Amino acid sequence: MKAVIVRGYGDVNQLFYGYIADLKPGPGEVLVRMMATSINPIDWKLRRGDMKNRMPLQFPHVLGRDLAGEVVELGDGVMTRKAGEHVLGLVNHAYAEYVLCKPDELALMPAGLSFEQAAALPLVVLTGAQLIEKGVRPRSGETVLITGALGGVGRTAVHVARQHGAHVIAGVRSSQKKDAEGLGADRVVALDDIADIASLNELDSVADTVGHEVIVALIPHIKKNGVLATVLGKPEAANARDLRVVEVWAQPDSARLEQLAHEIAAGKFSIPIRREFNLSEIQYADAEAEKGGIGKIVLVA
User: Fold this and answer.
1) Same domain, 105 and 163
2) CA atoms within 13 A on the CB side of 77
3) Which of 107, 146, 258, 267 is the most exposed place for a label (fewest CB within 10 A)?
4) Got the DSSP string for 10-57?
5) Per-residue model confidence (pLDDT) at position 153
6) Cα–Cα distances in angstroms (integers) from residue 300 to residues 93, 194, 273, 281, 295, in the given order
């Protein structure tokens, strides 16, 4: 079968589209034909070697966490999935024609979503939901500021925080304030505007997807014993502060993923797609994703 192979740390020229050994599901495994996947920052950070001390790769390596596709074969003992089902999931090694998965990693695709739309979801929606539900854990009426609110993780965090009854502040760049008005947050602030940050009242919590100087500026606005939930690791600026810092790393949760996918299919919130590429165009796609910007880069088989 064909897959995208990383042969070593470096730039996009380390990505090769070629043949690897065919896969066969073992006991308790599901084989899924990949119809679409998407690129997340973790993918190009791993490829560049940014995280080799924490998450070293064994080369050659197949990247990819997001999967949307069709179940084609079941290993012995799998009772919860059926051949022919359309599924999405947070998995490993998704940049390939076929992907081996555990049944509990996979959620059924809602009828209202295409494979491309579904492929944009798993990592960002689970990260955003867990950032709120496992990190912040807001009580109704508490004030939560979410940084990077127009990104996929941030959009989900805004949606989920509102579900929990929080007073939600969407933090974005000044140039993004108008676009952020459609997120449904109670307030939008520009995190690159000193006056906007100074106008903040005491915050019960911050859900951070941005880090760097943004979180340094926001930490003094978090109340004593408040919460900083982050997907970027504990910032040094939080040391010696009376804060509960929670580092959140997304974990598979097929039940929650299926709920969120249905909410997206129903139009309750959205994860935009910026551009689609064929899997064979991985070098161009990864270079585009690495530039940053709003919207996911989707790869189709």
Assistant:
1) no
2) 8
3) 267
4) SSGGGEEEEE-------TT-EEEEEEEEEE-HHHHHHHHTTTTTTSPP
5) 97
6) 14, 42, 13, 10, 16
142 in the same domain as 117: no
Under a CB-based contact definition with an 8 Å cutoff, are residues 153 and 127 in contact?
A: yes
pLDDT of residue 161: 98
The strand pairing partners of 246, in sequence order, are: 229
Q: Classify residue 164 as exposed, middle or buried by CB count within 10 Å of its CB (0-12, 13-18, 19+).
A: middle
Strands 273-278 and 222-230: unpaired
Please, which residues have CB within 8 angstroms of residue 213's CB and are 6 or more apart in sequence? Answer: none
Asked if the structure places residue 206 within a domain, the reply is yes
Q: Between the CA of residue 140 and those of 24, 117, 167, what are the distances in Å? A: 48, 31, 8
Cα maximum dimension of the chain: 61
* Mean pLDDT to the nearest integer, 12-24: 96
Question: How far are the Cα atoms of 169, 176, 193, 283 from residue 297, in angstroms, in the given order?
Answer: 27, 20, 29, 12
28 token code pair: 């308790």
Whether 241 has a pLDDT exceeding 90, the answer reads no
**What phi and psi, each to the nearest 5 degrees, are found at residue 176?**
-105, 0
Q: Count how many Cα atoms sit within 13 Å of the Cα of residue 130 in the half-sphere of its side chain.
A: 20
Q: How many domains, in total, are found in the chain? A: 2
- The residue range of the domain holding 113 is 2-121+271-300
* Best CA proximity match to 209, nearest among 191, 184, 194: 191
Q: Rounded to an integer, what distance in angstroms lies between the CA atom of residue 265 and that of residue 15? A: 33
CATH code: domain of residue 107: 3.90.180.10
Note whether residue 204 is domain-resident: yes
- What global pTM score does this model have? 0.95
Does 60 sit behind a cis peptide bond, omega within 30 degrees of 0 on the bond before it? yes
Per-residue pLDDT, 252: 95
Contact, 296 vs 271, CB < 8 A? yes
